[in-house]
Known about the structure:
Blueprint: H1 3-8, E1 29-33, H2 40-56, E2 66-67, E3 70-71, E4 76-77, E5 80-84, H3 88-98, E6 102-104, E7 107-108, E8 110-114, H4 117-120
Amino acid sequence: MSCISKALNQDDPLLLENAPKLDSDFSKYFVINNLPICDLEKSKKLISLLIKLFILKNFIISENDITMPINEATQKTDGCAFILCSSEEKAKLGAVIMNDHKLDKNHKLSAAQINDFERIM
């Protein structure tokens, strides 16, 4: 029996009773778009800048709350960041604070809460 035949006869491991459950609740996240695209080193400075901007608006986040995807092919950021908050309400507030924020003359940010994973996929 070939490997492909065996693979086709296997049950989906995520449907098994003891399988880990995917947390598809993204209500505590918001996304910031239109960030500068930069390399990994500059992305750390950009994260620090975002933290400072939030602090100026009395909204406290840490570096651990920010995920900035890196494109594997270019080794640069994708121009977005995902921010994890302690509650859905805080995520809504964070999105409002950063939406339409002018970072510099070339980057006006857009931000929105991620409240429905199924809808954005």
